[in-house]
Specification:
There is one protein chain. By secondary structure, this protein is an alpha+beta fold. Helix content is 13%, strand content 27%. The strands form 14 sheets. Strands 26, 27, 29, 31, 32, 34, 35, 36 and 38 form a 9-stranded mixed sheet that branches. Strands 9, 10, 11, 12, 15, 23 and 24 form a 7-stranded mixed sheet that branches. It is globular, with a radius of gyration of 30 Å.
């Protein structure tokens, strides 16, 4: 979504004075302020193709002197900062080389690549977008738990490529893009999302031709780039078309359009279309461009000189990305031209407005407004080739869900991703004017028969296509689901579908056996439930067990020819498969397709297509329980639970209840005890039949100890739970397993958690030197440690009623840079100093910082001041240091002198004598965690007497107006 790789690490930037675009470099113009002359030089500035030339002489500064701090993103959407976007091949190749040099892994360009099945001919021009189902998410284990460490960029890209190679090895060289989700909170992230380019074969878009798959060690010939969307559980991501899903839809549009639409050079008359850091963000549409809206940050104006900015079609908390009013979708006609969907003439005809503001970039716009057209873009960038008549229109993305060892994604996480991706397929179709398809399934355009785990007659957990059962034997039930039989455009009426299950892989890495369950004739309903609403066939052919010793298994269903079934683009139930797992079984059994034994017949009996079968697995799971994904909750709080969409049995089963109950809709929570007693109750819930139990750590079926269980304890004729457990250890973590008594009882529950006692929390403290110096727009403090206690750190500006919190999941390096967020994040703190930033932190304020375990009880507060602006009108800024004593800089002394400029330069150059980044980072409304030319310029401006220009008066002596975006 932007040209920066992560907030603070520059791939491409534009100098605000010279307007010269450089790659991995920073252009600094010689500045003369009074008698002060500054100039800094090093080598290897590289201009990007077509981005114009410098308008005044400049020298380049090597990006190796750029101080970088990456930024993560949790659930804070109230001040969302979009630091996501494009990572160029030159950038990630350097990151890979740096990681190899550090010994993190061997050179991926030298690895032996897997041999892949070729891309199917019918997939070359997709023409289809099958409905995404859970099985379409390829699961990949972060075995070394890299993403929980302070990983480097190169290590991240190498992990993504390992996952992509696993996908391609399993499914063939069938994808144009590989997309990624993770189902946990990483140590940090590279922005909210990003696109990593591997190949470009289109000219006329301002980008050179390249193919870097070999450099990253990626197999195959088709993948053009990666899209990383990060944690599926983040509240910023939402499926569907409701208002809260708009950000998700537009972010996906922006990431995928980075394949084509972000490289346009200046027009021949100098107007800047994309890539300006002075008006908008690098590598997106310039905010001076009126293009009627676009996910690529081209907004819509209303009127002319003054023209006001309309945000009616934009995301409320990120109003620089908007739906387009001409296409009614996530792309504009200008985007579609760059993507190869429309001709230059169609671009001009489709755009109701294509205007450019020559002066200001702040709404309202006052200045000269000019128009431009596709011919202006062609004149500067060249003709797009291939053009709209021959460019690729249909694309296929394979999506990977990265998970931790032994912690497969939950059905809720998978279903959320499925909902997002199905909407993305729809958005691509409509926003490309019906000319393109985006297939987000693992399938091509082949009819599918899928085995979908449903349940077992013992404790079980369904995780995607895998069902986990305990040792000791089980009878496992699978639904047989068919879909996409009309993706080839033939055989609309299906007369028969047949699939044979293969047992040849059962012995691989497993012990014990599987056997088909011997049932009466399927016509009695043992294997086919003909009354199910999603069963479409009208008559059933015989079902037989081929061999119960080695359980090859044939399943066949046929429809009456007179009532053939049309493919409605929905998955249809075709039958049920039940398999017995022997009592001595261990390992994972894979139920796959018997080669050559599956096909579709039309209603005349002719073969219309072979079908693919999506395999399923049965895992005998003795050690792990789904508690490993437990949600953290707080003592003395009410937790709202909606398990209506969760179809999971409890593992382990509950000890309470006269009959035990079937139980369904299971989820896990964990909390830190404040005292020796806890009470759990659901007595006031809307749904009316709950069961739950509390366990001592550690997590694991064979490891957990049930301390108490509740079912039907809220009083006479009440099936809700209420239990008090004593003997807890303050500060220790405990688990809660929660279920409805049956699937019919799933719904909305309120679980009240009441703890007695309160362990004493140590308060934050002023850190040791040199971090104890007061900052302009950072809060630096020692969080102190509360051993064994998960705590949140609250930040309150004196005079404000709005609490902010320190993002513990966003600590980015050993120096503790992090963001302020709007929602509490609980962490067992291990940093000696935190430097917190955010739009709420402004000069001349007093902030109170305290710790809490439950949001009800807080430690004593630490008072932290930010530096009071000095000089004219009380608005001066740039006081970084005092003087240099020969070994280090002294504290700021209330004056802006040449010493402050030199101190910023020292930080820029990473000198040992440099002041800390949190002091020298003085550019922007929000500190961006990077020392670059603008920070030096700001110090110069402060020296020259410029006012602090971010809309803040002296908050200690007058009215404070933070200028938050």
């Amino acid at each position: 979504m932007c040209i920066i790789k992560r907030e603070g690490e520059i791939n491409t930037m534009r100098d605000p004075v010279s307007n010269f675009m450089v790659h991995k470099s920073i252009v600094v113009t010689c500045l003369i302020v009074g008698s002060l002359v500054m100039g800094f030089a090093c080598d290897d500035a590289k201009a990007l193709p077509g981005n114009g030339s410098p308008t005044r002489s400049s020298v380049s500064v090597d990006s190796s002197r750029t101080v970088s701090v990456s930024k993560g993103l949790g659930d804070d959407v109230s001040h969302l900062h979009q630091d996501c976007g494009y990572i160029s091949s030159n950038s990630w190749l350097r990151d890979i080389a740096d990681s190899v040099a550090r010994g993190e892994f061997t050179d991926p360009a030298q690895r032996t690549l897997p041999r892949l099945a070729p891309r199917l001919l019918q997939q070359a021009g997709q023409g289809c977008a099958p409905m995404v189902v859970r099985d379409d998410l390829f699961l990949f284990e972060d075995t070394a738990q890299l993403l929980l460490t302070n990983f480097t960029d190169g290590a991240l890209f190498n992990l993504m490529t390992s996952a992509a190679n696993a996908l391609l090895t399993d499914r063939g060289d069938s994808y144009d893009f590989v997309g990624f989700w993770v189902d946990f909170t990483p140590n940090h992230t590279l922005g909210s999302a990003f696109y990593l380019g591997l190949e470009n074969d289109a000219t006329g878009i301002g980008q050179s031709i390249y193919n870097q798959r070999a450099g990253i060690g990626l197999a195959g010939d088709n993948v053009e780039g990666y899209v990383m969307m990060w944690n599926i559980n983040d509240n910023i991501w939402a499926p569907g078309v409701a208002a809260d899903a708009n950000f998700t839809r537009l972010v996906l549009a922006q990431e995928f359009e980075h394949r084509f639409g972000m490289f346009i050079p200046n027009l021949l008359d100098g107007r800047n279309m994309q890539g300006t850091s002075g008006c908008g963000r690098g590598g997106h549409w310039n905010f001076k461009v009126d293009g009627q809206g676009s996910g690529m940050e081209i907004r819509e104006w209303v009127g002319s000189s003054p023209a006001t900015l309309s945000t009616a079609s934009c995301v409320s908390f990120a109003d620089n990305i908007c739906f387009n009013s001409d296409t009614g979708g996530v792309f504009s006609y200008s985007d579609l031209y760059l993507m190869g969907y429309v001709s230059p003439a169609e671009m001009d005809a489709g755009n109701s407005e294509l205007r450019y503001m020559d002066s200001s970039c702040s709404s309202p716009y006052n200045g000269t407004i000019s128009t431009f057209s596709s011919s202006d873009i062609v004149a500067s960038a060249g003709v797009r080739s291939p053009d709209s008549t021959t460019a690729q229109k249909d694309f296929h993305t394979g999506w990977i869900m990265i998970h931790l060892p032994g912690q497969l994604p939950s059905t809720g996480e998978l279903d959320k991703a499925v909902g997002i991706l199905n909407q993305w397929s729809t958005d691509w179709d409509s926003s490309t004017l019906g000319r393109g398809k985006m297939n987000n399934s693992l399938r091509g355009c082949t009819p599918q028969i899928s085995l979908r785990p449903v349940s077992a007659d013992t404790n079980n957990m369904v995780r995607g296509s895998d069902i986990l059962v305990p040792p000791g034997g089980a009878e496992v039930t699978f639904d047989i689901i068919a879909s996409d039989w009309n993706t080839l455009g033939v055989g609309t009426l299906v007369g028969e579908a047949k699939a044979q299950v293969d047992s040849t892989g059962y012995s691989s890495g497993t012990t014990g056996s599987l056997s088909p369950v011997i049932m009466p004739s399927p016509s009695t309903g043992a294997f086919i439930d003909t009354v199910r609403a999603d069963y479409l066939f009208q008559s059933i052919a015989s079902t037989e067990n081929v061999d119960t010793a080695t359980p090859d298994y044939t399943w066949t269903a046929s429809a009456s020819p007179a009532t053939g079934v049309s493919d409605l683009d929905t998955a249809a139930y075709f039958g049920t498969l039940k398999l017995d797992v022997s009592p001595d079984a261990t390992g994972t059994f894979t139920i796959d397709l018997l080669s050559g034994g599956s096909h579709l017949l039309d209603d005349g009996g002719a073969t219309i297509a072979s079908v693919a079968l999506n395999a399923a697995k049965i895992t005998i799971d003795a050690a792990n329980a789904p508690c490993d994904a437990a949600q953290t909750v707080s003592c003395n709080s009410t937790v709202s639970i909606d398990n209506s969409g969760i179809s999971l049995a409890p593992i382990p089963g509950y000890a309470c209840g006269a009959s035990g109950g079937p139980h369904d809709g299971t989820l896990w929570m964990k909390f830190v005890s404040l005292g020796d007693t806890v009470t759990l109750a659901t007595c006031g819930s809307a749904a009316q039949d709950s069961s739950f139990a509390i366990y001592a750590m550690p997590c694991g079926v064979s490891l957990m100890s049930e301390l108490g269980c509740s079912e039907d304890d809220c009083g006479p004729s009440n099936f809700l739970g209420d239990i008090t457990v004593t003997g807890l250890t303050p500060g220790e973590e405990y688990l809660v397993q929660f279920s409805a008594w049956s699937s019919a009882d799933r719904g909305s529950y309120d679980l009240v958690i009441t703890c007695n006692g309160m362990t004493t929390l140590s308060a934050p403290a002023i850190p040791i030197a040199p971090h104890d110096i007061t900052k302009d727009r950072y809060l630096s403090f020692d969080p102190t440690t509360n051993p064994g206690q998960m705590t949140a750190l609250r930040v309150m500006r004196v005079g404000s009623v709005t609490p902010w919190y320190v993002g513990c999941g966003l600590s980015l390096d050993g120096e503790g840079f992090t963001e302020l967020v709007s929602s509490p994040e609980f962490c067992e703190w291990d940093l000696s100093v935190i430097h917190a930033r955010g739009c709420e932190i402004v000069p001349g304020n007093e902030y109170l910082i305290d710790a809490t375990m439950d949001l009800l009880n807080f430690s004593t507060a630490l008072s932290v001041l930010t530096t009071v602006p000095q000089f004219s009108a009380g608005r001066q800024f740039g006081d970084i240091v005092g003087v240099f004593d020969g070994t280090a800089w002294t504290a700021a002394e209330g004056l802006v002198t040449a010493n402050d400029i030199v101190a910023v330069v020292h930080t820029f150059q990473l000198l040992a004598t440099a002041p800390h980044l949190s002091r020298a980072d003085n550019d922007g409304k929000i500190p961006n965690g990077i020392i670059a030319s603008n920070d030096i310029l700001r110090a110069v401006f402060g020296f020259a007497g410029s006012d602090f220009d971010f809309g803040v008066t002296n908050c200690l002596t007058g009215t404070c107006v933070p200028n938050c975006p």
